[in-house]
């Protein structure tokens, strides 16, 4: 994780330090280099440290669609559709925000095939760059060492810290939060949001027998429904409201599973499986 943070922070801050904007070729290259660090580092470690059996299991969990099932993907899509609707309602009805223009939905109404392009951008904007690392590699290590909830919490904090260069890069959500209220929205809000989002992904990860692909799917859908081309453009009020709505609703999901005995048994089964896997290395 240290290598991942060092890679992303270095590549992310160089354009800022030397004033290389998006219009500068070098600046764009460094920004593109910053994103893939979690996945690239993880894949290198998988190939250099995993046994053949572990490699086979890892890549199976990365690409096995059947392991995801149907129920969980549908619930995830419904959940983040509700998150978006509630955010729009609160930001426009109580906080003086403007209604998002839903430009993507307008396009899809007349050009449905554009959904493929939107999903492509939703995949490469986070899941492809990150999930081979966060859920694919780091999460199991943290589970084994700290347990399910503490491990998820730690990964959420690391994930929030990983985004540090984006706090100072206009056009990113982190920049909006930092400019609005550095402590409340930028540090506390965004970190809590990453923690609750991480815990939700961890829950579904367990429910789908450690499907890395499902982790990537949740990441994609979270981006796609709440802050992508689907509803863009939206104002700063919408994004700041979204942070706290996600904290509350994702936190409620986490609380439900904390209190669910069946899920505790599923966690225990997963921990036993991880220990057995380590013992057989």
Describe the SSE topology.
Layout: H1 2-17, H2 25-34, H3 37-49, H4 52-63, H5 65-68, H6 71-93, H7 103-110, H8 115-124, H9 127-146, H10 148-162, H11 173-180, H12 182-207, H13 212-227, H14 236-258, H15 261-279
Helix pairs in contact: 1-2, 3-9, 6-13, 6-14, 8-13, 9-10, 9-13, 10-12, 11-12, 12-13, 12-14
Mean pLDDT: 93
Structural class: mainly alpha
H-E string: HHHHHHHHHHHHHHH
Distance between the termini: 22 Å
Main sheet characteristics:
none
Globally, the shape reads globular
Give the total of beta strands. 0
Count of individual helical segments: 15
Indicate the radius of gyration in whole angstroms. 19 Å
Percent helix range: over 70%
Count of structural domains: 1
Describe it:
The protein is built from 15 helices and no strands. It is mainly alpha-helical and 281 residues long. It is globular, with a radius of gyration of 19 Å. Helix 3 packs across helix 9 (127-146), helix 8 packs across helix 13 (212-227) and helix 10 (148-162) crosses helix 12. The protein is 79% helix and 0% strand. The protein has one domain (65-279). It starts with a helix and ends with a helix.
């Amino acid at each position: 994780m240290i290598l991942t943070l060092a890679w992303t922070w270095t590549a992310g801050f160089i354009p800022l330090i030397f004033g290389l904007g998006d219009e500068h070729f070098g600046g764009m290259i460094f920004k593109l280099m910053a994103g893939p660090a979690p996945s690239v580092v993880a894949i290198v470690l998988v190939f250099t440290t995993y046994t053949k059996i572990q490699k086979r299991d890892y890549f199976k969990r990365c690409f096995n669609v059947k392991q995801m099932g149907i129920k969980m993907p549908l619930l995830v899509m419904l959940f983040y559709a509700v998150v978006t609707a509630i955010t729009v309602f609160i930001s426009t009805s109580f906080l003086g925000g403007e209604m998002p223009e839903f430009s993507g939905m307008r396009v899809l109404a007349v050009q449905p095939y554009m959904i493929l392009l939107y999903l492509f951008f939703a995949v490469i904007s986070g899941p492809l760059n990150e999930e081979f690392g966060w859920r694919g590699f780091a999460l199991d290590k943290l589970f084994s060492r700290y347990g399910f909830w503490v491990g998820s919490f730690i990964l959420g904090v690391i994930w929030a810290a990983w985004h540090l260069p984006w706090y100072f890069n206009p056009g990113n959500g982190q920049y909006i939060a930092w400019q609005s209220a550095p402590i409340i929205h930028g540090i506390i809000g965004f970190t809590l949001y990453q923690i609750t989002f991480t815990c939700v992904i961890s829950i579904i990860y367990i429910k789908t027998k450690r499907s890395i692909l499902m982790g990537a799917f949740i990441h994609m859908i979270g981006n796609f429904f709440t802050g992508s081309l689907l509803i863009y453009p939206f104002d700063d009020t919408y994004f700041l409201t979204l942070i706290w709505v996600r904290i509350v609703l994702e936190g409620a999901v986490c609380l439900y599973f904390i209190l669910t005995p069946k899920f505790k048994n599923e966690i225990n089964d997963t921990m036993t499986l991880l220990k057995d896997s380590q013992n057989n290395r």
